[in-house]
Amino acid sequence: MASSAPTMSETQEILQDNLDYTLFSWSKQKGINPIAVKYAEGVYLYDYDGKRYLDFSSGLMNVNIGHGNQRVTAAVARQMQEVSYVTPSCVTRARGELGRRLAEITPGNLQKTLFTVCGATAIDNAIKLARMYTGRHKIIARYRAFHGASYGAMTAGGDPRKLAADAQQMPNVVHVEDPYCYRCPWGKEITSCHRECVSHIQRIIEFEGPANVAAILMEGESGSSGCIKYPPDYLQKIRALCDQHGILLIMDEVMSGFGRTGKWFAAELHGIVPDMIATAKGITAGYLPLGALIVTDKIADHFNDRALMLGLTYSAHPVACAAGVEVLKIYEDEHLIENAAEMGRYIDHCMEVLKQRHPSIGDFRNTGLLGCIELVKNRTTKEPMAPFNAKPDEMTVMNQVAARLRQLGMYTFVRWNYIFIAPPLSINREQVDEGLAIISDALTIADAHTQS
């Protein structure tokens, strides 16, 4: 009698369904082995085999309040019991309350919000609105920035993930060099440079024609491009350039917003008020998709007697707005923004110790809980452990580091020669210590490939 075929475990079945019937972003589709997450709580993920993973990148830098907060679940359920969807031409309590709260926490006179579906749609609508408002068409943006994966947002970013599809880029985007002080494009040191990164943009504006430039698009703080730190006065000087030429300043606070940097918005750290803030992620802490484009009174008033030709089916979705209202309350009730600033300082202190221990650490850049370790083969030459836009065969060492992190029970974002440190804002010192101990272990793999 033939024996029956072995049955798959629950984990195997879940993995197989996902691999057979779904597609994975930014990845080849064969040979991957994703974590099958059963549940999540606080700063931890748990798989179907009971293994615990410390989420050291807050998902994709969006689960700011931590996982599994049932206050959001209850708020969403209450809203769905009342009404789960209305068209954007109708209003709900949640929409108005969230809009009012955003006006209260944003800097300056940023008072009105167009709700979108995600960060990319916030950026797309920011670009459209800038062109409508100014009557100009060119957008200036940075090469080492990622603004989303829709065609408009993808073009505005310079991230090489767009290269496979860049034959169809949106026209009239002009890219500029980044103020990447660790690898300054002009070979300068921050203590003695003349802000060539700013005069470079000034020249680009002159070359392109100031009357043609609608907006300059900047991240509040650099994210997945490597947490590149702005010089202290950089954004203030960019703000001044915009004011000089009648150009709008759009801040992409999708990743840096909602306490991630130790402030509600990173613009506050730099002492500036942009004309628009495009944001998402932390607005609902990833519990539901929602984005927002927040604009000044002056821009909003421009459309008092003109049609605002922007719209989305799911704009101001009531359930997503209800989640956003509750998440903003959680930030305040649990003092998460203050905790982000405190834990960021603690991580900065701990990293100074790790730098002494691990020669592979070339640089550590961090603002609040948005940080990145840059690994190098040689601290003097700064040769990266994996180059910009590394090919698969150039990622051998970093893949080994990433595998060790996972083996030890950490989930975090590893890209090129970067390891990201961006845990939920609810993290405590003990959990930070746990995470840095795991990273320290994995760094010994990279250390073995360094040169004195």
Descriptive account of the structure:
- This protein has 452 residues and is an alpha/beta fold.
- It has two domains: 13-65 and 335-447, Aspartate Aminotransferase, domain 1 (Alpha-Beta Complex); 70-333, Aspartate Aminotransferase, domain 2 (3-Layer(aba) Sandwich).
- The chain has helices spanning 10-21, 58-61, 70-82, 93-105, 119-134, 151-156, 196-208, 234-245, 297-302, 318-333, 336-357, 396-407, 429-447, and strands at residues 37-41, 44-47, 52-55, 110-116, 138-142, 173-176, 213-219, 248-252, 276-279, 291-296, 361-367, 370-378, 383-384, 410-411, 414-415, 418-421.
- The strands form three sheets. A seven-stranded mixed β-sheet has the order 4-10-9-8-7-5-6, with helices on both faces.
- It is globular, with a radius of gyration of 22 Å.
- The protein starts with 9 loop residues before the first helix and ends in a 5-residue tail after the last helix.
- Mean pLDDT is 96; it is low at 1-5.
Write the layout of secondary structure elements.
Elements: H1 10-21, E1 37-41, E2 44-47, E3 52-55, H2 58-61, H3 70-82, H4 93-105, E4 110-116, H5 119-134, E5 138-142, H6 151-156, E6 173-176, H7 196-208, E7 213-219, H8 234-245, E8 248-252, E9 276-279, E10 291-296, H9 297-302, H10 318-333, H11 336-357, E11 361-367, E12 370-378, E13 383-384, H12 396-407, E14 410-411, E15 414-415, E16 418-421, H13 429-447
Parallel strand pairs: 3-14, 5-6, 5-7, 7-8, 8-9
Antiparallel strand pairs: 1-2, 2-3, 4-10, 9-10, 11-12, 12-13, 12-16, 15-16
Helix pairs in contact: 3-10, 4-10, 7-8, 11-13, 12-13
